[in-house]
Amino acid sequence: MKNIIKYLLVGFVFGIVLTKSEAVSWYRIYEMFQFQSFHMYGIITVAILTGIIGIQIMKRNNIKDIKGESIEIPDKEKGSARYWIGGLFFGLGWALVGSCPGPIFILLGAGFWTVLIVLFGALLGTYLYGLLKNKLPH
């Protein structure tokens, strides 16, 4: 129970940071896809750098996961077509919806009920991937 509260707290803080930085703003996302503002690119760059630093800290200090097991991050497999195709689908969905899947629950919590359609689409896409994953090139 203690861990659940810890993760919920991190989720709330993450939601507040995304909201205050305007990363959940449709207008900011629109600006990004129109190359009119650096705002979202700056946020994404900070997220990438934070991830790089975090992974290096985990690797160098042999940090364990919640079960006490070593965290191992395997190298990516060779080939780029699936990354381009996946990125294209992800980017198109992001551009059409005006939101990354990350803040779906943040937007719901802020009272944007139309995001329920986005949540349904995300769940449907995940379900369809589960059905088709064995037939897709991995």
UniProtKB/TrEMBL annotation:
The keyword Membrane applies. It comes from the Bacteria. The chain crosses the membrane at residues 39-58, 83-106, 112-132. Keywords: Membrane, Transmembrane, Transmembrane helix. This is YeeE/YedE thiosulfate transporter family protein.
